[in-house]
Predict the 3D structure of the following.
Amino acid sequence: MNTTAALLFKAWRESRGRFLISAALLAAICVFGVFCRGTLMKVIVPEGRFGGDPYVGYIYALVYAGTARGLFTIMVMVLALGGLQRERLHQTLGFTLALPVSRTRLVSMQALLGLGQVAALSMLPLVLLTICSSLAQVSYPLAQMACFGLLWFTGGAVFFAVALLAATLFRNEYTALTVAFAFTIFYPMAVLFSPLSRYPLNIHHIMSGVRMPYFNVHTALLVGAPPWALLACMLMMAGVLIGVAIQITRRRDYA
Amino acid sequence: MLWYKMWRESGVRFTISAAALLWMCAMVVLLQRRVRAHADEPISYAHYIWSAVYKANVLDLFVLLVIVLGLGGLLQERAQGTAGFTLSLPVSRWRLTAVRAAMGCLQVAILALLPALLIPLLSPVVGETYSFAPAFQFSVLWADAGMVIFAMALFFSVVLPGAYSAAIASVAALLAYSILADLPPLARYPALDLIETMHGAQLLASRREVSLAALLAPLPWLALGLYALVALCLVGAAGAIMAGKDFP
């Protein structure tokens, strides 16, 4: 096993429980959402909320703009926690730092695996909704699911990067979690201030399409091409935050 | 001494939570003109505060922060190799759990009180008024329901060993509960819907126009009593599990 694979395996062993629970919870919402739609639709999309196909509006309200998206946001932040600060607390840091690899590689591999997990969680609704919808003899457009998956991945990458930075900055794992949670709610409010308010910076809205030019609120469908420039900016922001986390880890004295 | 220990363990989390809540409430008040101007239909200031603080953003933040306050405890100390020191203290495990729960409930109550103190005081700065009475009513709802959420996180932190397992389980349980509470068999009993109670659903006859007068309805004491009982049961169950646990 080469170094990269070994480090990825280490990161996987540390986060697999959280990842599998997150996947199971998201899967539960999608599966129960489709098969229990008869009851849930009346509660989640009361008549008249969306025009067009009621099932499309329902899946959007439950998954892509509702409970599942909220859960996804929280879970990707929990996935980013851990790392060297936590190992210091658990007194296992010495073993990790004694490995013949740089700290940059340690954190990079943790971030790489985490982003892979974010991508997997983003695409999970696509897989499950496709299968469950066909079993339940209803349909949700595949292109819509792919596009929402892309939006979730880019938004999730930013939230993941924020939590990774918090986990790098704060020694106490719960402090990092508190800061990450506070960010998810604080940030959308902060972008209402001028001059930020002129730009579409609310990641929650970008992920769900709410108030975005690429979303039709009447049909609950994404329209036109995905906002590539916006998504590229978000990925760049995630990259910068991960880079900052790496730099902090490199310079930190763990004595 | 135990109180001081519990405070030292959760003090940073509590301080950050309080700062985040205060900052969020301040932003909601200061941004009121801009947000109300972009609303789909004109809304009163009281309605705006209700929808931004007591129904949406700030409430979500409060719930998440309360969950984080409930994390920690002896299982986490064991992972960090410090459980032995705590267990060697001349106090029973029941007392450890009880003091931890009491400190947490106190912190939850203080967090719940913060919007009620800040919003009425800050509203005149933006040329609006919001009286203390409805704000304190919501604080009572938040504190009581918040204690259930705290007790649930505390219970999971006693049962589940992973550092983040309790947080994940609490979020999942709340989401599942909020969906279940909306379904027909349970929807008939609004007192059972924890989140809706925190929204003040039982205070508001009509959500289309929320006025200060509408918010001055009597508090749902039956639901609040039920929540307090549930919180007490969860803390009791956590204490019993902790007392019988083997820490080799």
User: Anything to note?
Assistant: The mean pLDDT of chain B is 87. Chain B touches chain A through 39 residues (CB under 8 Å).
